[in-house]
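To fix ideas, we now present one chain and its tokenised fold:
***
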Amino acid sequence: VYVAAGDSIGVGVGASSNNSTYTYQIAQKLAETSQVSFYNVAVSGAKTEDVINIQLEQIITLQPDIITLSVGANDITHLRTDQTTINNLNKGITILTSKTKAQIYVANMPILKDAPLLPRLFRLILELKARKINASLEKLSSDRVKIVPIHDFGWDQFPDIKITFAKDQFHPSDIGYQNWTEAFLITMKLK
């Protein structure tokens, strides 16, 4: 059983189809070698406390073998304190490791400085917050919890970073989701 959780990135907002989302592509890759039941409990707009208050119960009920989690960007854009975001992530991860036997893959905070939708000064502030949270997030890594380096993974391969953004100029495009998929698959040792 594979469960995807988190925010709009987990849902796949910006992708041209469900098949282009990183969560679906991971499920497809897992299905190459074993039977997979795939559930996606991610909700657009979710913040870290929403994962704790709503999604964790759903995840625990499903008793997955693998969990992917992408959440925190909404905390950053809503200017939640960095410490609140880290505390919530730590709490969620602690609950999942104690109440499931799953291997857990947590995306670090995405790169926000290039999102065309946001004003430049705001992007720079958000980027500083993302980097600070990512430094703390690395400390939550363990034998069952792996941090996926979304922030710094492969973005320099794109001569025009704007092609990695969807039409809304904030969420990933299919190209952006492919990069997310690659980062997860490498961290999961599936590639």
Notes: The radius of gyration is 15 Å.
